[in-house]
DUF5050 domain-containing protein
Amino acid sequence: MKKAMRVLAKTTFLICATLGLGSQANAEVLNSGQAVNEKKVWTIKFNNKVKLDNVTKNYIKVVDSRGIFQNINLELEKDKKSIKVTPCDNGYKPGEKYTLKVMKGVKGESNKGLKKEISMDFYIKDNMSSDKLNTSINNVQNASFVVQDSEWIYYSDLTESNSIYRMKKDGSSKKVLYKGNSRICKLYLSNEYIYFVSHSGNFTQGEEYCIYRVKKDGVGKPQVICKNISVNYQFQIDGDSLYYVQDSRLMRSDLLGNNAKEILKNIENTTDEVFFLLKDKWIYYFGFDYRSGKATGIYKIKTDGSQKQCIVKNVDAQSMKVSSINIDGNDIYYKNFSGDIFKSDLKGRDLERVRFLNGVSGVNVFNGYIHYLYEGAVHKIKADGTEHSILAQKSLNDFDYINIVNGELWYLDTNKELKSVPVVTKDSGEDDGDSNPGNPVSLKEGDSFYIKGVNSLSSKVIKIETADVNGDGKKENVILAGVNENYSYKDLKIFIQKTSNGEILGYDSLKNFSCEEIGNSISLGDFNKDKISDIKIDLLLNTQRGMHATYIYTFTKDKLNKIFHENMIPAKAQDFKYKLLDDKSIKVYDDKGNSYIVNLASDDEEHYKYLTNIGIGPSITVFYEGEDIDRDGSLELSRTIYLVGVSYSDFLCSAKTTYKYNPATSKWEYKGLHVESEFFPCTKVSSNSDNDDENNNEQDKQKSSIQNFVEKNNTIYYVQDKWTKRSKNDYYLSDSYLRGIKNDLSTSSTIANDISGKIQTYGKYMYYVSAYGVNLHRVKLDGSNDTVISKDIVKNFCISDGYIYYCSDKGGIYKMKQDGRDVSMLEKDKAEELVVLDDWLYYINNGSLYKMKTDGTSREDLGVTANKMLGASEDGVYYCISQKDGSSNLYRANIDGKRSKCIFEGLLKGYAVYDGYVYCINNTNNYIYKMKYDGSDLVKVSDEKAKDVVGVSEKFIYYKAGDTLNNEHLYRIKKTGGKPEKVD
């Protein structure tokens, strides 16, 4: 394949691809990772003339980071050797990652196919996004500890935690993304990486500060980009270039630290520490020699190292001593060590002293205002001294930095917690009347909170959360306040407060209630489907008895509206029924046909007898949770109570009932029941159960992880491929079906279309990955209720004990419930295939075999080379290694990964394991063979020619055979021999 590339035009890029006879090959990534504009046109150049028909169009795709196909236009150029790929509508989304795929189904006019699939990742630039326009370039002078993309906020708290965190814009989903060994600062985002500065900890080699990068998802180890940079960790990124200071020299390199070039050797003094800012392809800089005390003027130079010029001369060394520079619009500001702030234009003209701000720190000039820290508060003031205001109280003096990112000013409070307040981003400098703060806008639990005429002078903040709760695009404080008395709170009220100036927008009283000092919470989420956060208040009324009260509010038209309290749904245990049965079990059920059996067979006889005498009943302990169970973007409300026996602490099982709010009727509608028990076996037995027959077919557990074939309920389930012939020896896969055929071959049906081949059953559902490996589906065995349960790009999956384990194309091994809920990452490895056996996961990672517990612990590299077709059974772990002739060698290892050995050479396609025997096809003669699990007693089963073993059941071996692809059918032969029988 030719790898040479050349640029055709400003908006096009050439990808060379060779058309020839099809052959198996891995996808080849050509110059991936470019950042381009949203109207980017790609040109795919082939070495022979190519067809552009409806078939070809199915094999040239652009997908986004979630695996969703994009609308594109394909155009064949006049030479018939090039295809242009143009985005439809408004182009690609700024800041998003896309992948251009050219698949092997593409054919030339001679009907020869593409030899290898080609894929290329690219990113859409977002340099002109509103986020960046509302972000101060002067953050670099303030440690640049907060950065943001379209979805996440990333930050370093600059403390001893030595970590990079990320969270959603509303402050939710906070987690540690990366943990280092020393303080982290100077964060930059570029494509899929976070760049930052940290100490190497290796003083013996003179390496003090280094530039690192780590992936935005935290996967993988950090890379060292540059070593021994300035002790003041000066570096910045502009486009595809990285600028940094090293030994008083200003350097430029690519984003991997390669091709380093010296832009500036020194300023005025050969030992100056250089400080700089980038704007519009100019570098503005100054220097200071800490040993001699000498200062320099302020200079600017082009990013290519040309046109060096001094814009502010060092005429007065004492007043000059610049401590920081800021650029705002067409003006440059600098502060000296005496506290004077000067201003000029970017050419150094009209220099004037504008303010004297002695003792301030964290200066960040933005949209005509000087923002700074002073005496534990965040201030802002215009350069002319007008419109002074305090944005926030209780800032941390030890870390004197502030960042302005997407219209929010970020700082650390006295508890070393990251906080933000809105800043005005209007060009006019007006502040919507919020320049005079009233009530505190930066609060924490325990602070006094008094609103004249509303609550008591002794009222305090119990809980506080900040989010946009009225849909105006700005954050509000949601405050639960009350009066502390005798270790509890009374006079409870909820307030909505403007974060910019402390104005109270609305409030409501929680009458007749008092709550404990701890155990209360505020949570946010959309319950009424208006895509605006609603407010859920949970009060702990009594610690010893576990009593709670829950309210849900919306905030619209400056009014708090209560949409949930406990009287809006049936009283406890009235939304389901329960009874103690004679066979030592409890039945819990509802009117919708949901039914559970809690088996008390292991219960103490005396305790069970006591239960039969006094009965069972609901506990007073109640929990309410918001969950998006049906995945429609809004939350359901789940109520969990306990069925108890002898006492309120004698928990027998928990019953969770779920409700959905209907905005049209303003009522909560019952949705379902789920029962669990920590101490006794619990089984769902209703006719609507997903798992009522999960234990009566062993293939539900393991055999489908080895063979893509299932025999269940007297029915055979398998994948049928449809191949369409274009010309002699030229076929393309036009569709794949999930088929169900009765064991006696009397009737058949299609369960699902467009699947990629991996299937597995659990209960009444069949699970499969859709075509192109995009989404994970489940469908009932009768073909109904086909539902996407994961929109991830699922490469491989397996199911065990009600959980689905899968590996994602974006990297990582995940675990989720069988209905797609409760997704969690177990490990960051980019696994290719995985299977589950008992409580262990086996998977292939970077060509090696690994194992790990199903809870994500005890990860171990087994030291075994493997690259495809992984399976496991009680007899061992099976895997293949590809050979040059297209065949594979089949290996087996013990379940601990030891004593690995080849048990079959020259395997053609797949294999199946059943009852201690392995069934496969020899690549040299195409006959079916069977052998014991350890490779012994190899015998030929049949003289019939076959292409692939599909699966094995108790009586039959199922295999594919046919002289051509479009004439390939499924056959079966008895294990005892005899004539083959055509299945489809």
User: Anything to note?
Assistant: The first helix runs from residue 54 to 57. The chain has five domains: 12-124, 130-422, 459-568, 577-684, 698-982. The mean pLDDT is 83. The longest strand covers residues 901-914.
